[in-house]
Amino acid sequence: MTYQEALKKAEEYLVSRGIDNAPVDAWYLMEYSCKCDRSWFLMNREKEMPGPLYARYQSMLSDRARHIPLQHLTGEQEFMGIPFMVNENVLIPRQDTEILVEEALKVIKPGSHVLDMCTGSGCIIISLMKYKQDILGTAVDISNAALDVAKENAARQGVCIDFIQGNLFQNIDGKYDAIVSNPPYIPTDEISKLMEEVRCHEPAGALDGREDGLYFYRQIITKSCGFLKAGGWLLFEIGYDQGLSVSEMMKSAGFSDVRVIKDLAGLDRVVKGKLP
């Protein structure tokens, strides 16, 4: 079977298994399993695919057909132009979260110390430190398994971050110039409605925002005032319908300049505010 035939067959197979973006996934799995790029493929597509490569490709397609996320098969996801290692212990970084990083970069000043709450893969704090290299970073997560992933990502990107295991502010000392967070914000009853890739293969603890999805915002907003310097910023990623609730919570806690920022689809995505 030629490379081109194998790719076409893979697309049809994934479509038949209900995989969204089947042609894209079929290509990425070929690229990964065969270690080829698009140019090489176009020049060699009529060649016979070696047996061992074809077997490896079929194995990965079979896993994807079971709705294992593509990123768990390749072990990587790009975020802010940076490759991050991912596995089943962390949320896969999403493009929407880049808006949180972009908004943080606008308000973080040189020499700032930034705390990343619920760091997961570390993609937020690592990206901030790569694009603003004169800041200090601290990252906390309740999951040691997630912190192992974040530490590996930091090592790969050559950034030095103070990683802390704990439940929110449990083991945090001192005050920070900014706190950024993408906390769990899916209401518990909504998790069963998520796509299978998310519901069955990403960590439930990083998704579940309790009954109304706002539990962690309440906790972080209430306690962050004791960990932010005067003039410090608090920035969250939020669900599309949480902008009003989270912004009102921040205003009630005494934050000023509270703003809701929309994503590229026009949906509420980030809330930020400043401690007077």
**Integer tally of domains:** 2
| Largest sheet geometry | 7 strands, mixed
Tell me the series of helices and strands, N- to C-terminal. HHHHHEEHEHEHEEHHEHEE
CATH class assignment of the largest domain: Alpha Beta
The amount of helix comes to 40-55%
SS field, number of helical segments: 11
The name of the CATH superfamily of the largest domain reads Vaccinia Virus protein VP39
> What is the overall shape?
elongated
Radius of gyration: 21 Å
Total E-strand runs:
9
Uncertain segments: none
SS-based structural class?
Answer: alpha/beta
The CATH topology of the largest domain comes to Rossmann fold
Lateral strand order in the biggest sheet: 5-4-3-6-7-9-8
Mean pLDDT: 97
Separation of the first and last Cα atoms: 66 Å
Q: Any guess at the CATH architecture of the largest domain?
A: 3-Layer(aba) Sandwich
Strand content range: 15-25%
Domain Release factor glutamine methyltransferase N-terminal: 5-75
Family: Belongs to the protein N5-glutamine methyltransferase family. PrmC subfamily.
Pfam families: MTS, PrmC_N
Binding site for S-adenosyl-L-methionine: 141, 182
Question: Topology, please?
Answer:
Blueprint: H1 3-16, H2 22-34, H3 38-44, H4 51-65, H5 70-74, E1 76-79, E2 82-85, H6 98-107, E3 113-117, H7 123-131, E4 136-141, H8 144-157, E5 161-165, E6 176-181, H9 196-201, H10 215-224, E7 228-237, H11 243-252, E8 256-262, E9 268-274
